[in-house]
Amino acid sequence: SRKTTILGIETSCDDTGCAIVNGYGNILGECLYSQNALHVRYGGVNPVHAWELHRDNIDLAVKNALKSAKIGVSEIDALAVTVKPGLLLSLTIGVKYAKFLAKKYDKILIPIHHMEAHALVARMYYDIPFPYLTLLISGGHCFLAVVKDVDSFLLLGQTLDNAPGEVMDKAARRMKLKNIFEYSAVSGGRAIELAAKNATNPAMFQFPIPLLKNRDCNFSFSGLKDSLVRKVLKKESEHGLRGDEVIPEIYDLCASFQASIARHLAHRLERAITFCEMKKLLHFDTKNIIISGGVACNDYIYSCLERVGNKFGFNLYRPPHKVCTDNGVMVAWNGIEKVKKGDTIPLLSISNIDPTASF
Ligand code: KG4
Ligand code: ZN
């Protein structure tokens, strides 16, 4: 029933998240320990460091989520935990903890796929029927898929090299953006978005258009990253900069770079829409697209994608910003969706991760 409550645990990357959600889509309680701070996130996630932080935070994250919901584990109907994909060390912390809770309180444990959770959580906020098109853009992934049902996904395309958030994080580091946003604990992607707002000539730098001749729905971001690195090097030597100095064209460069990422995503989304129409994969009157993952927080990128969607009569949706990035809410909600659908849920049957783990 809608009164069903599920506690979700997410530890697939570097954020330790826990949330309690009910069948109405209400968040009863939540807690998130985010390691997104510039100094940590710049240049990517360190798996061992992430594992240590999960290990130190998981118990508190779950306890604080329960506390804010004013509820005990015994009153929860089921547990849900991300089992893949992600960093194995990180995943293991969440899975072990969830198994421990499930055993102790005799609860059902629902295994969750991280990307499916990203793709479904917008349904907690908007009434979006299946099937719909989804574009998942984060620090670890780039997926275009048709969501046919709670447990049925058709993958249309993915990145052939880096993920867009990863490339933005690396670019932010190379541009030394932390020297501009010294005190703000923001991700590299967010730092680029903020810097781009100060641009006076956002078209100053030319970037290539990746996979221009590919007729599929795949992505490639490494060329954009390489192009950015070359531009920074060139400007640094032109200005004779050393060490920690930031190039004076930083704002325009961020804007041009961000636009090149948005343009590539927009091209591929357009391609996916055309493909779906051709193959009649989205046969409903309501044509919907859900954008999610950390990069979906970027308002500039989102508005570019919205323009593409609108051109073809599609509505675009994204979850609230804090639910676009990794969190426990989407895991709990995915559990709710699975329970609602009435799937036979495998009890403690997380077979493909750390099968040797015990408590
Ligand atoms: O979904 P997420 O929290 O974790 C992964 O699964 O990777 O996404 C984090 C990524 C980071 O790479 C970060 O730079 C990017 O999302 N990100 C952004 C913005 N906010 C976060 N990228 C562009 N613009 C933003 N405003
Ligand atoms: Zn994610």
What does this structure look like?
The structure is a single chain. With 359 residues, the chain is an alpha/beta fold. It has two domains: 5-123 and 323-341, ATPase, nucleotide binding domain (Nucleotidyltransferase, domain 5, 2-Layer Sandwich); 128-318, ATPase, nucleotide binding domain (Nucleotidyltransferase, domain 5). It is 41% helix and 17% strand. The chain has helices at residues 38-41, 47-69, 88-105, 114-120, 164-174, 188-196, 222-238, 250-278, 299-311, 321-324, 329-341, and strands at 5-10, 16-22, 27-33, 78-84, 108-113, 132-137, 142-149, 152-158, 288-292, 315-317. The protein has a five-stranded mixed beta sheet, with helices on both faces. Strand 4 (78-84), helix 3 (88-105) and strand 5 (108-113) form a beta-alpha-beta unit. Mean pLDDT is 90; it is low at 38-42 and 347-359.
Summarize this entry quickly:
By secondary structure, this protein is α/β, with parallel strands linked by helices. 41% of the residues lie in helices and 17% in strands. It contains 11 helices and 10 strands.
